Fold this sequence. Notes:
Layout: H1 4-18, H2 23-30, H3 37-49, H4 55-66, H5 72-81, H6 86-92, H7 99-110, H8 118-130, H9 135-146
Helix pairs in contact: 1-3, 4-6, 7-9, 8-9
Amino acid sequence: xxxxxxxxxxxxxxxxxxxxHSRAELMSKLAAQAESAEQLxxxxxxxxxxxxxxxxxxxxxxxxxxxxxxxxxxxxQELRQKGVGxxxxxxxLPEGGDEAxxxxxxxxxxxRELPQSAEERAKQxxxxxxxxxxxxxxxxxxxxxxE
Length: 147
């Protein structure tokens, strides 16, 4: 019969080969297979020591992959939900590039033309807010659209 800790490590590595996971995400996925919380912590600690599990790397990859569609507020929220710490989030966000430029690109893909009325302007601003862009980035885009 295989060692339960080895089986847990194999399951963790199987998940990590598909994509990076945050520590909290991996913990929740493996909790049912672990005999104890201490065993799970030990396996995750070993993976972190071997640099196979990294919240910082996970956060950076997530930001790079999703920055083209979402603003910093939405990216922060998603990373927090995945259990990533504030320090790792702060280190990863600059990898997404300038938020105002991303906001302008999202706006241009969705709307393509200037708002003709106050209602259209409000609709466009709500869309960008929902995508997690800051008020400043949205104002810059709308100012550019007004010019």
